[in-house]
Amino acid sequence: MMRAPRFEGIIGRTLAESQPWYDEPPHPSPEAPNVVVVLLDDTGFAQFGCYGSDIETPNIDTLAENGLRFTNFHVAPVCSPTRAALLTGRSEHAVGMRSVANFRTGFPHQLGHITSSATTIAEVLREEGYATFCVGKWHLTPSEQCSAAGPFDHWPLARGFDRFYGFLDGETDQFHPQLVCDNHPIDPPGRPEDGYHLSEDLVDQALRMVTDSKGVRPDRPFFLYLPFGATHSPHQAPASYLSKYRGKYEEGWDVFREKWFERQLETGVVRPGTQLAPRNPGVDPWDELGEDQRKLACRLQEAFAAFLDHTDDQIGRLVEGLRDLDQLDNTLLLVLSDNGASQEGGPFGVLHEMRFFNSLLDGAVDVPSDLIGRIDEIGGPHSHTNYPWGWAQCGNTPFKWYKQNTHEGGVHVPLIVHYPRRIAADQRGSIRDQFSYVSDIAPTIYELVGVTPPQTYQGIEQLPVTGHSFASVIDDPAAPATNSVQFFEQMGSRAIVDGEWKAVCRHIHGDDFDTERWELYHLATDWSECNDLASDQPERLEELIKLWWSEAERNGALPLDDRTIELFGVRFRNNSPHPADRRYVYRPPMSPLQMGSSAAIGGRSFHVTAYVTRTAEQDGVLFATGNENSGISVFVQSGRLVVDYNAFGEHSIVESDNIIPAGDATLVARVTRGTGRSGTISVEVNGQAAGSVDTAAFMRMISSTGSSIGYDDGSAVSARYQAPFAFAGKLHELEIQLADDEDPALRTAEAAEEMRRQ
């Protein structure tokens, strides 16, 4: 039976006997503010200038001078959980995002997406009449769903945003990003040689969305969520910003950590009496490093500083754009980071972060002296860098540990609140040191906007919003903290804050959860977790541990799961992008594939078979995955079949002995895993062996950049051509068949090794 649309007028036999009715959408009050949330990635507590560093962030600093600095604000230890808690106002575990969206474990706390039982800020505000925009990094969709095939249920447009422009995965190259507009992949609007950089593009797009909306509907407020790719690896910035910091950090991380700490004490962003935490294990005294180590570490820190400085200028452009539209005064603008500074550069730092995930950090392959010859690439379009632990801990001053850890270095980050129409003039530039957590932001927005999140949404009963609005703290510096109990968990590491006390356990992969050691800190006198009171107050510690288990159960954080790198592996099954027979068949033309939806060739033997028709002159790429920093490309050049196996700049190339005959041809490239890190690459033309080469650097995790069929998307994997080098002949079909030879025990051992390096 058909259901008539809602109508509250009168329908008579004629117009004269009828009364029209117009279903008007909801509209916010005239005083309703715009809401802008600017989220930085992997930016530590000390790295903004107004939080202690010497990195130039004048635009962020100006927002702080005219707003409020929150100095006791906390987040989850990694990005996706923070984003889920931020957008929903609920525990990240309760909404299905205990760790990064790349992982799906079959348990409710790790769905790889936000449950439909938890509305986002965008969904709530759009129902109230707001325009809603997301521009930047999403990372809240299962990786295998991040292709043009969808499904799109957990893409931004399905979670309350009217428009989206950005990237779906955890990171992207800032000069050659894998971009999505709304629900479809797009090419970047420029190239690095044109002066293109993603952060600039994001702000251009954000301002375009806002002006498009305000130009037609000036009465309608907007919610803009702007999660930059900065300052996540790769640390990349325009050349002028890189040169600005050249030679600035030669005194080393010990000196700069002291300088930044002194500034923090002087400006009040850390409490009086706070100690500077000792160096983390694995961070050597600067004076004991070799010359090449220091040279490499300085250049990597320069790249980070340039990246943050450049991002600050883009935030300045956004603020000026809002001011030009006369929207700044009535905009609630928040700037924060998603977790502490990253440990994923290892002890020396890396030119390519995927080396970290391949355990290539401190062996003969990657001693810093091997990198000095490429030092001028750092920070530019030919690198994918992350800095060493020493600079990461400097970024987390005065704390210890890093991103991934539940100690303060992983979870204690800056938050700036700017809202001219709400913040009293005599409070602008002041500090709030009341404890708060990222899930407290959504209810704060709801209170300031004057809306109530729905109990049901699209017919689905909603989880209660469990965050605590801190609007009262914005208004009154003496107001008590609204959040007094907060639990943390990541990869088995745990912590609980109860008022002035914190219990924390840094879990080591594989250790016994029941017997490993917890630490106890009195935060009121020991913000930086230097004085462990576990032995002095065992009863208090035991009570806090019991409280953690209670909060964990209440918020859906169980079961504890300490798997890490091994969870990046795909699940082979029918009715998915990764078929049970491990045979992938692609027929161009196709949009580029994100890594999670690409053929899962990392760490496995496989062969690529291309069925082509070509003339003698028709060359080009048949299959490519990754980018110029690491990847694999199969292509035809000068009539020969070529495979370039690019392992972090070390190219193993095989070229067919014979010319491919014109007409129909079957071309095969085989990559065979050997023992340890060895492997063999061979090619066949029409069933005949045509050459092979060995590689000593077999990759288990290849790149964060996905695959392309019939061309090379982004930066060229091989230096033998310029991207996209599209195949000029006819590629009828490309088949990738995986061998079932991955070694799960080895992958698990590598994950454990990585965690133990700390």
UniProtKB/TrEMBL annotation:
<dbReference type="InterPro" id="IPR050738">
    <property type="entry name" value="Sulfatase"/>
</dbReference>
<dbReference type="InterPro" id="IPR000917">
    <property type="entry name" value="Sulfatase_N"/>
</dbReference>
<dbReference type="Pfam" id="PF00884">
    <property type="entry name" value="Sulfatase"/>
</dbReference>
<comment type="similarity">
    <text>Belongs to the sulfatase family.</text>
</comment>
<dbReference type="InterPro" id="IPR024607">
    <property type="entry name" value="Sulfatase_CS"/>
</dbReference>
<dbReference type="GO" id="GO:0016787">
    <property type="term" value="F:hydrolase activity"/>
</dbReference>
<keyword id="KW-0106">Calcium</keyword>
<protein>
    <submittedName>
        <fullName>Arylsulfatase</fullName>
    </submittedName>
</protein>
<dbReference type="InterPro" id="IPR017850">
    <property type="entry name" value="Alkaline_phosphatase_core_sf"/>
</dbReference>
<dbReference type="InterPro" id="IPR013320">
    <property type="entry name" value="ConA-like_dom_sf"/>
</dbReference>
<dbReference type="GO" id="GO:0046872">
    <property type="term" value="F:metal ion binding"/>
</dbReference>
<keyword id="KW-0479">Metal-binding</keyword>
<keyword id="KW-0378">Hydrolase</keyword>
<feature type="domain" description="Sulfatase N-terminal">
    <location>
        <begin position="33"/>
        <end position="451"/>
    </location>
</feature>
